[in-house]
Amino acid sequence: MKALVWHGKEDIRCDTVTDPEIQDPRDAIIKVTSCAICGSDLHLFHNFIPGMLPGDIMGHETMGEVVEVGSGVDGKLKKGDRIVVPFTIICGECDQCKRGNFSVCETTNRKRHLADKAFGHATAGLFGYTHLTGGYPGGQAEYLRVPYADATHIKVPAGIPDEQLLFLSDIFPTGWQAAAQCDIEPTDTVAIWGCGPVGQMAIRSAILLGANQVIAIDCLPERLSMAEAGGATTINFETESVVERLNDLTDGRGPEKCIDCVGMESHVMASLPDTLLDRAKQMVMAESDRPHVLREMIYVCRPGGIISVPGVYSGLSDMLPMGAFMNKGLTMRTGQTHVNRWTDDLLRRIEEGEIDPSFVITHTVPLEQGPEMYQVFRDKRDSCVKVVLKP
Ligand SMILES: NC(=O)c1ccc[n+]([C@@H]2O[C@H](COP(=O)([O-])OP(=O)(O)OC[C@H]3O[C@@H](n4cnc5c(N)ncnc54)[C@H](O)[C@@H]3O)[C@@H](O)[C@H]2O)c1
Ligand SMILES: [Zn+2]
Ligand SMILES: [Zn+2]
Q1: How buried is residue 307: exposed, middle or buried, by Cβ count under 10 Å (0-12/13-18/19+)?
Q2: Coil, strand or helix: which one is 376?
Q3: Could you tell me which of 4, 24, 163, 318 has the fewest CB atoms within 10 Å of its CB?
Q4: Averaged pLDDT in 10-residue chunks for the chain of 391 residues
Protein backbone atom coordinates (compact mmCIF):
# COMPACT_ATOMS: atom_id res chain seq x y z
CA MET A 1 0.00 0.00 0.00
CA LYS A 2 0.96 3.67 -0.20
CA ALA A 3 1.79 5.51 3.04
CA LEU A 4 3.52 8.70 4.19
CA VAL A 5 6.78 7.58 5.78
CA TRP A 6 9.15 9.52 8.08
CA HIS A 7 12.76 9.29 6.88
CA GLY A 8 14.33 12.02 9.01
CA LYS A 9 14.13 15.74 9.70
CA GLU A 10 11.90 17.44 7.08
CA ASP A 11 11.93 14.26 5.00
CA ILE A 12 8.54 12.59 4.60
CA ARG A 13 7.95 10.49 1.50
CA CYS A 14 5.01 8.66 -0.04
CA ASP A 15 6.39 5.09 -0.14
CA THR A 16 5.04 1.68 -1.02
CA VAL A 17 5.05 -0.39 2.18
CA THR A 18 3.70 -3.78 3.30
CA ASP A 19 -0.06 -3.89 3.92
CA PRO A 20 -0.96 -4.17 7.62
CA GLU A 21 -2.25 -7.50 8.91
CA ILE A 22 -4.13 -8.64 11.99
CA GLN A 23 -1.43 -9.31 14.63
CA ASP A 24 -3.59 -9.67 17.72
CA PRO A 25 -7.16 -10.92 18.20
CA ARG A 26 -8.24 -7.41 19.30
CA ASP A 27 -7.03 -5.80 16.02
CA ALA A 28 -9.09 -4.51 13.12
CA ILE A 29 -7.93 -3.28 9.72
CA ILE A 30 -9.57 -0.31 8.07
CA LYS A 31 -9.44 0.97 4.52
CA VAL A 32 -8.75 4.65 4.99
CA THR A 33 -11.20 7.01 3.27
CA SER A 34 -9.80 10.29 4.68
CA CYS A 35 -6.90 11.36 6.86
CA ALA A 36 -5.35 14.70 7.80
CA ILE A 37 -2.11 16.43 8.78
CA CYS A 38 -2.01 17.78 12.36
CA GLY A 39 0.10 20.49 13.99
CA SER A 40 1.56 17.67 16.10
CA ASP A 41 2.86 16.06 12.89
CA LEU A 42 4.89 19.24 12.31
CA HIS A 43 6.79 18.68 15.59
CA LEU A 44 7.76 15.23 14.20
CA PHE A 45 8.53 16.72 10.77
CA HIS A 46 10.98 19.07 12.52
CA ASN A 47 12.36 16.18 14.59
CA PHE A 48 11.63 18.05 17.83
CA ILE A 49 10.02 15.02 19.50
CA PRO A 50 12.52 12.29 20.36
CA GLY A 51 11.92 8.67 19.44
CA MET A 52 11.13 8.71 15.70
CA LEU A 53 12.77 6.09 13.49
CA PRO A 54 13.23 6.08 9.71
CA GLY A 55 10.43 3.97 8.23
CA ASP A 56 7.75 5.10 10.73
CA ILE A 57 4.35 5.69 9.08
CA MET A 58 2.88 9.11 9.96
CA GLY A 59 -0.68 10.13 10.76
CA HIS A 60 -3.14 10.11 13.65
CA GLU A 61 -6.29 11.70 12.21
CA THR A 62 -7.90 8.91 10.23
CA MET A 63 -11.24 7.41 9.34
CA GLY A 64 -12.41 4.64 7.09
CA GLU A 65 -14.23 1.38 6.59
CA VAL A 66 -13.55 -1.78 8.58
CA VAL A 67 -12.35 -4.49 6.19
CA GLU A 68 -11.16 -7.16 8.66
CA VAL A 69 -11.63 -7.86 12.36
CA GLY A 70 -9.71 -10.13 14.73
CA SER A 71 -11.42 -12.88 16.70
CA GLY A 72 -11.19 -10.87 19.95
CA VAL A 73 -13.01 -7.77 18.75
CA ASP A 74 -15.97 -9.47 20.25
CA GLY A 75 -18.80 -8.18 18.10
CA LYS A 76 -17.99 -4.55 18.88
CA LEU A 77 -17.03 -3.96 15.21
CA LYS A 78 -17.82 -5.76 12.01
CA LYS A 79 -16.74 -5.64 8.39
CA GLY A 80 -18.32 -2.66 6.64
CA ASP A 81 -18.61 -0.47 9.77
CA ARG A 82 -17.64 3.17 9.25
CA ILE A 83 -15.33 4.41 12.01
CA VAL A 84 -13.27 7.42 13.00
CA VAL A 85 -10.07 6.33 14.75
CA PRO A 86 -9.18 8.29 17.92
CA PHE A 87 -5.48 9.21 17.96
CA THR A 88 -5.14 7.71 21.44
CA ILE A 89 -5.07 3.90 21.49
CA ILE A 90 -7.16 2.72 24.44
CA CYS A 91 -7.83 -0.60 26.14
CA GLY A 92 -11.10 0.49 27.76
CA GLU A 93 -10.37 -1.69 30.81
CA CYS A 94 -7.51 -0.24 32.86
CA ASP A 95 -7.96 2.06 35.85
CA GLN A 96 -7.26 5.21 33.78
CA CYS A 97 -9.61 4.19 30.94
CA LYS A 98 -12.34 3.53 33.53
CA ARG A 99 -11.84 7.09 34.82
CA GLY A 100 -12.08 8.49 31.27
CA ASN A 101 -8.38 9.42 31.31
CA PHE A 102 -7.90 7.72 27.96
CA SER A 103 -4.70 9.48 26.83
CA VAL A 104 -2.92 7.97 29.83
CA CYS A 105 -4.26 4.42 29.28
CA GLU A 106 -1.98 2.08 31.23
CA THR A 107 -2.09 -0.79 28.74
CA THR A 108 -1.57 0.31 25.16
CA ASN A 109 1.96 1.78 25.15
CA ARG A 110 3.98 -1.23 23.98
CA LYS A 111 7.29 0.65 24.53
CA ARG A 112 6.51 1.80 28.04
CA HIS A 113 10.11 1.38 29.20
CA LEU A 114 11.06 4.37 26.97
CA ALA A 115 8.24 6.56 28.27
CA ASP A 116 8.83 5.52 31.90
CA LYS A 117 12.33 6.92 31.52
CA ALA A 118 11.38 10.12 29.71
CA PHE A 119 8.18 11.07 31.59
CA GLY A 120 8.35 9.13 34.87
CA HIS A 121 5.35 7.05 33.80
CA ALA A 122 4.22 5.75 30.43
CA THR A 123 1.18 7.29 28.71
CA ALA A 124 -1.12 5.73 26.10
CA GLY A 125 -0.02 4.36 22.76
CA LEU A 126 -0.63 6.87 19.95
CA PHE A 127 -0.91 6.30 16.21
CA GLY A 128 1.85 7.58 13.94
CA TYR A 129 3.77 9.23 16.74
CA THR A 130 7.06 8.71 18.52
CA HIS A 131 8.28 5.38 19.93
CA LEU A 132 7.83 7.02 23.35
CA THR A 133 4.12 6.43 22.69
CA GLY A 134 4.46 2.93 21.30
CA GLY A 135 5.75 3.58 17.78
CA TYR A 136 2.49 2.40 16.19
CA PRO A 137 2.18 2.85 12.40
CA GLY A 138 -0.06 5.81 11.57
CA GLY A 139 -3.02 6.40 9.32
CA GLN A 140 -1.68 8.63 6.55
CA ALA A 141 -1.91 5.48 4.47
CA GLU A 142 -4.30 3.37 2.42
CA TYR A 143 -4.87 0.91 5.27
CA LEU A 144 -4.46 1.10 9.04
CA ARG A 145 -4.19 -1.61 11.69
CA VAL A 146 -6.22 -0.50 14.71
CA PRO A 147 -4.97 -2.24 17.88
CA TYR A 148 -7.46 -2.73 20.75
CA ALA A 149 -10.07 -2.00 18.07
CA ASP A 150 -12.96 -3.16 20.27
CA ALA A 151 -12.36 0.01 22.36
CA THR A 152 -10.31 2.22 20.00
CA HIS A 153 -12.97 3.46 17.61
CA ILE A 154 -15.80 5.92 17.17
CA LYS A 155 -18.66 4.44 15.12
CA VAL A 156 -20.18 7.03 12.83
CA PRO A 157 -23.40 6.92 10.82
CA ALA A 158 -23.73 6.93 7.04
CA GLY A 159 -25.08 10.07 5.42
CA ILE A 160 -22.66 12.59 6.96
CA PRO A 161 -19.60 13.37 4.79
CA ASP A 162 -16.12 12.36 6.01
CA GLU A 163 -15.11 16.01 6.23
CA GLN A 164 -17.62 16.70 9.03
CA LEU A 165 -16.63 13.61 11.05
CA LEU A 166 -12.87 13.19 10.52
CA PHE A 167 -11.83 15.70 13.18
CA LEU A 168 -13.55 13.68 15.92
CA SER A 169 -10.23 11.80 15.77
CA ASP A 170 -8.27 14.66 17.32
CA ILE A 171 -8.61 18.41 16.79
CA PHE A 172 -12.33 18.80 17.58
CA PRO A 173 -12.20 16.99 20.96
CA THR A 174 -8.80 18.64 21.55
CA GLY A 175 -10.22 22.16 21.19
CA TRP A 176 -13.25 21.05 23.20
CA GLN A 177 -11.24 19.54 26.06
CA ALA A 178 -9.05 22.65 26.14
CA ALA A 179 -12.15 24.79 26.65
CA ALA A 180 -13.94 22.32 28.94
CA GLN A 181 -11.02 22.15 31.34
CA CYS A 182 -11.26 25.96 31.73
CA ASP A 183 -14.57 25.50 33.63
CA ILE A 184 -15.97 28.45 31.65
CA GLU A 185 -18.42 30.70 33.48
CA PRO A 186 -20.82 33.06 31.66
CA THR A 187 -18.84 36.14 32.74
CA ASP A 188 -15.45 34.78 31.57
CA THR A 189 -13.10 36.13 28.97
CA VAL A 190 -11.23 33.24 27.34
CA ALA A 191 -8.00 34.16 25.53
CA ILE A 192 -6.72 31.64 22.98
CA TRP A 193 -3.14 31.72 21.66
CA GLY A 194 -2.78 30.18 18.18
CA CYS A 195 -5.45 30.15 15.47
CA GLY A 196 -4.34 26.95 13.76
CA PRO A 197 -6.84 24.09 13.49
CA VAL A 198 -6.71 23.40 17.25
CA GLY A 199 -7.17 27.08 18.11
CA GLN A 200 -10.13 27.32 15.71
CA MET A 201 -11.83 24.36 17.43
CA ALA A 202 -11.07 25.84 20.87
CA ILE A 203 -12.63 29.19 19.85
CA ARG A 204 -15.89 27.55 18.71
CA SER A 205 -15.90 25.30 21.78
CA ALA A 206 -15.41 28.21 24.20
CA ILE A 207 -18.32 30.00 22.56
CA LEU A 208 -20.55 26.90 22.66
CA LEU A 209 -19.62 26.51 26.35
CA GLY A 210 -20.91 30.02 27.02
CA ALA A 211 -17.89 32.32 27.38
CA ASN A 212 -18.74 36.01 27.60
CA GLN A 213 -15.84 37.01 25.35
CA VAL A 214 -13.33 34.99 23.32
CA ILE A 215 -10.08 36.64 22.21
CA ALA A 216 -7.87 34.87 19.66
CA ILE A 217 -4.18 35.61 19.05
CA ASP A 218 -2.08 34.82 15.95
CA CYS A 219 -0.19 36.69 13.23
CA LEU A 220 -1.68 35.14 10.09
CA PRO A 221 -4.50 37.24 8.56
CA GLU A 222 -6.43 34.30 7.10
CA ARG A 223 -6.40 32.46 10.43
CA LEU A 224 -7.43 35.63 12.30
CA SER A 225 -10.33 36.10 9.83
CA MET A 226 -11.45 32.52 10.43
CA ALA A 227 -11.29 33.19 14.19
CA GLU A 228 -13.42 36.32 13.76
CA ALA A 229 -15.93 34.38 11.68
CA GLY A 230 -16.18 31.99 14.64
CA GLY A 231 -17.04 34.83 17.01
CA ALA A 232 -13.65 35.85 18.45
CA THR A 233 -12.12 39.29 18.87
CA THR A 234 -8.59 39.05 17.45
CA ILE A 235 -5.09 40.27 18.28
CA ASN A 236 -2.21 40.19 15.78
CA PHE A 237 0.90 39.57 17.90
CA GLU A 238 3.18 40.89 15.15
CA THR A 239 1.64 44.34 15.11
CA GLU A 240 0.12 44.72 18.60
CA SER A 241 1.15 44.14 22.22
CA VAL A 242 -0.71 41.02 23.34
CA VAL A 243 -0.49 41.93 27.03
CA GLU A 244 -1.70 45.52 26.51
CA ARG A 245 -4.61 44.53 24.27
CA LEU A 246 -5.71 41.72 26.60
CA ASN A 247 -5.67 44.10 29.56
CA ASP A 248 -7.57 46.75 27.55
CA LEU A 249 -10.23 44.22 26.58
CA THR A 250 -10.71 43.12 30.22
CA ASP A 251 -10.69 46.46 32.06
CA GLY A 252 -7.13 45.83 33.14
CA ARG A 253 -7.95 42.57 34.95
CA GLY A 254 -6.64 40.06 32.40
CA PRO A 255 -8.56 37.10 30.95
CA GLU A 256 -9.89 34.61 33.51
CA LYS A 257 -9.06 31.69 31.22
CA CYS A 258 -6.08 31.28 28.87
CA ILE A 259 -5.61 28.48 26.33
CA ASP A 260 -2.26 27.62 24.67
CA CYS A 261 -2.98 26.22 21.18
CA VAL A 262 0.60 26.88 20.04
CA GLY A 263 2.86 24.56 22.03
CA MET A 264 6.60 24.08 21.83
CA GLU A 265 7.23 25.88 18.51
CA SER A 266 6.16 29.42 19.36
CA HIS A 267 7.01 31.94 16.62
CA VAL A 268 10.57 33.36 16.86
CA MET A 269 10.68 37.17 16.62
CA ALA A 270 13.41 39.75 17.25
CA SER A 271 10.91 41.84 19.25
CA LEU A 272 10.45 38.88 21.62
CA PRO A 273 14.01 38.27 22.90
CA ASP A 274 13.02 35.23 24.96
CA THR A 275 12.08 33.43 21.71
CA LEU A 276 15.54 34.10 20.27
CA LEU A 277 17.15 32.70 23.39
CA ASP A 278 14.87 29.63 23.28
CA ARG A 279 15.75 29.01 19.64
CA ALA A 280 19.49 29.29 20.37
CA LYS A 281 19.14 26.87 23.29
CA GLN A 282 17.08 24.46 21.16
CA MET A 283 19.85 24.42 18.57
CA VAL A 284 22.47 23.33 21.11
CA MET A 285 19.98 20.97 22.80
CA ALA A 286 20.05 22.96 26.05
CA GLU A 287 16.24 23.31 25.98
CA SER A 288 13.67 21.28 24.06
CA ASP A 289 10.74 23.72 23.88
CA ARG A 290 10.08 27.40 23.10
CA PRO A 291 7.53 28.22 25.82
CA HIS A 292 6.93 31.92 25.03
CA VAL A 293 3.16 31.46 25.12
CA LEU A 294 3.24 29.83 28.57
CA ARG A 295 5.25 32.79 29.90
CA GLU A 296 2.84 35.31 28.35
CA MET A 297 -0.24 33.48 29.65
CA ILE A 298 1.07 33.30 33.23
CA TYR A 299 1.91 37.01 33.10
CA VAL A 300 -1.44 38.20 31.72
CA CYS A 301 -3.91 35.72 33.26
CA ARG A 302 -6.23 37.15 35.91
CA PRO A 303 -5.25 36.01 39.43
CA GLY A 304 -7.15 32.87 40.37
CA GLY A 305 -7.51 31.98 36.68
CA ILE A 306 -6.98 28.78 34.71
CA ILE A 307 -4.34 28.05 32.10
CA SER A 308 -5.26 25.23 29.73
CA VAL A 309 -2.52 23.72 27.58
CA PRO A 310 -3.47 21.48 24.65
CA GLY A 311 -0.33 22.71 22.80
CA VAL A 312 2.30 19.97 22.78
CA TYR A 313 5.53 20.29 24.78
CA SER A 314 8.17 17.62 24.51
CA GLY A 315 10.64 18.00 27.34
CA LEU A 316 12.25 20.87 29.20
CA SER A 317 11.11 24.52 29.19
CA ASP A 318 13.24 27.28 30.72
CA MET A 319 12.40 30.53 32.47
CA LEU A 320 8.80 29.82 33.39
CA PRO A 321 7.70 32.57 35.78
CA MET A 322 6.82 30.33 38.73
CA GLY A 323 6.73 33.37 41.03
CA ALA A 324 3.82 34.87 39.11
CA PHE A 325 2.19 31.46 38.64
CA MET A 326 2.28 30.67 42.35
CA ASN A 327 1.51 34.09 43.78
CA LYS A 328 -1.42 34.67 41.39
CA GLY A 329 -2.90 31.33 42.43
CA LEU A 330 -3.21 30.04 38.89
CA THR A 331 -4.20 26.50 37.91
CA MET A 332 -2.74 24.70 34.92
CA ARG A 333 -4.58 21.86 33.18
CA THR A 334 -3.14 20.04 30.24
CA GLY A 335 -2.76 16.71 28.42
CA GLN A 336 -3.05 14.81 25.23
CA THR A 337 -6.77 14.63 24.58
CA HIS A 338 -8.93 11.96 26.21
CA VAL A 339 -10.66 11.67 22.82
CA ASN A 340 -13.38 9.12 23.61
CA ARG A 341 -14.40 11.02 26.76
CA TRP A 342 -16.00 13.66 24.53
CA THR A 343 -17.05 11.96 21.31
CA ASP A 344 -20.66 10.93 22.07
CA ASP A 345 -21.49 14.53 22.92
CA LEU A 346 -19.54 15.98 19.97
CA LEU A 347 -20.96 13.52 17.42
CA ARG A 348 -24.46 14.47 18.59
CA ARG A 349 -23.63 18.17 18.14
CA ILE A 350 -22.46 17.46 14.57
CA GLU A 351 -25.56 15.36 13.80
CA GLU A 352 -27.85 18.09 15.15
CA GLY A 353 -26.09 20.73 13.04
CA GLU A 354 -24.84 22.70 16.04
CA ILE A 355 -21.33 22.67 14.60
CA ASP A 356 -19.71 21.58 11.34
CA PRO A 357 -15.95 21.12 11.92
CA SER A 358 -15.25 20.98 8.16
CA PHE A 359 -15.07 24.81 8.11
CA VAL A 360 -11.36 24.51 8.92
CA ILE A 361 -10.41 22.57 5.74
CA THR A 362 -8.58 24.63 3.13
CA HIS A 363 -6.90 21.85 1.11
CA THR A 364 -8.07 18.39 -0.01
CA VAL A 365 -5.52 16.45 -2.05
CA PRO A 366 -4.55 12.86 -2.94
CA LEU A 367 -2.32 11.04 -0.40
CA GLU A 368 0.58 11.13 -2.89
CA GLN A 369 0.74 14.92 -2.49
CA GLY A 370 1.19 14.53 1.28
CA PRO A 371 4.95 15.22 1.37
CA GLU A 372 4.47 18.53 -0.46
CA MET A 373 1.49 19.41 1.77
CA TYR A 374 3.61 18.99 4.92
CA GLN A 375 5.65 21.93 3.63
CA VAL A 376 2.64 23.99 2.55
CA PHE A 377 0.99 23.49 5.98
CA ARG A 378 4.26 24.16 7.84
CA ASP A 379 4.95 27.37 5.89
CA LYS A 380 1.26 28.42 5.97
CA ARG A 381 1.53 28.90 2.19
CA ASP A 382 -1.55 29.36 0.05
CA SER A 383 -3.58 30.38 3.16
CA CYS A 384 -3.36 26.77 4.33
CA VAL A 385 -5.14 25.99 7.61
CA LYS A 386 -5.99 22.27 7.39
CA VAL A 387 -5.07 19.59 4.88
CA VAL A 388 -7.21 16.50 4.23
CA LEU A 389 -5.57 13.64 2.32
CA LYS A 390 -7.50 11.13 0.23
CA PRO A 391 -5.75 7.75 -0.23
N1 LIG B 1 -3.21 17.96 23.32
C2 LIG B 1 -3.52 17.28 22.23
O3 LIG B 1 -4.06 16.19 22.31
C4 LIG B 1 -3.23 17.88 20.88
C5 LIG B 1 -3.92 17.43 19.76
C6 LIG B 1 -3.68 18.07 18.53
C7 LIG B 1 -2.74 19.07 18.44
N8 LIG B 1 -2.05 19.45 19.56
C9 LIG B 1 -1.07 20.54 19.54
O10 LIG B 1 -1.76 21.78 19.42
C11 LIG B 1 -0.87 22.75 18.85
C12 LIG B 1 -1.56 23.46 17.69
O13 LIG B 1 -1.87 22.56 16.65
P14 LIG B 1 -2.38 23.12 15.24
O15 LIG B 1 -2.72 21.93 14.41
O16 LIG B 1 -3.40 24.15 15.42
O17 LIG B 1 -0.97 23.72 14.70
P18 LIG B 1 -0.54 24.96 13.80
O19 LIG B 1 0.93 24.90 13.73
O20 LIG B 1 -1.31 24.97 12.50
O21 LIG B 1 -1.00 26.24 14.62
C22 LIG B 1 -0.21 26.94 15.52
C23 LIG B 1 -0.55 28.42 15.39
O24 LIG B 1 0.10 29.14 16.42
C25 LIG B 1 0.49 30.40 15.91
N26 LIG B 1 1.51 30.98 16.79
C27 LIG B 1 2.86 30.78 16.80
N28 LIG B 1 3.44 31.50 17.77
C29 LIG B 1 2.46 32.19 18.39
C30 LIG B 1 2.42 33.12 19.47
N31 LIG B 1 3.53 33.49 20.09
N32 LIG B 1 1.23 33.64 19.85
C33 LIG B 1 0.08 33.28 19.22
N34 LIG B 1 0.03 32.41 18.17
C35 LIG B 1 1.21 31.87 17.78
C36 LIG B 1 0.96 30.07 14.50
O37 LIG B 1 0.98 31.21 13.66
C38 LIG B 1 -0.08 29.03 14.06
O39 LIG B 1 -1.18 29.62 13.41
C40 LIG B 1 0.39 21.96 18.44
O41 LIG B 1 1.37 22.09 19.46
C42 LIG B 1 -0.10 20.53 18.39
O43 LIG B 1 0.95 19.62 18.59
C44 LIG B 1 -2.30 18.88 20.76
ZN1 LIG C 1 -2.92 15.74 16.42
ZN1 LIG D 1 -6.64 1.59 29.24
Answers
A1: buried
A2: helix
A3: 24
A4: 98 98 98 98 95 97 98 95 98 98 98 94 97 97 98 97 98 98 98 98 98 98 98 98 98 98 96 96 95 98 98 95 98 98 98 98 98 98 98 98
- Backbone φ, ψ for residue 143 (5° rounding): -135, 155
Between the CA atoms of 175, 44, 219 and 334, what dihedral angle is there, to the nearest 10 degrees?
30
Q: What is the dihedral of CA 358, 363, 369, 375, to 10 degrees?
A: -110
Backbone phi, psi, residue 306, to 5°: -120, 135
SS3 292: helix
Q: Got the DSSP string for 49-65?
A: SS---TTEEP--EEEEE
Q: What's 14's DSSP letter?
A: E
Ligand nearest, relative to CA of residue 196 = 1
**Secondary structure (3-state) at 352:** coil
Q: Report if pTM > 0.85.
A: yes
Q: How far apart are CA 182 and CA 307, in angstroms?
A: 7
Q: Of 145, 151, 154, which is closest to residue 27 (Cα–Cα)? A: 145
Residue 42 Cβ inside 6 Å of ligand 1? The answer reads yes
As beta bridge partners, residue 364 has 388
> Does 82 contact ligand 1 (Cβ within 6 A)?
no
Measured in residues, the chain has a length of 391
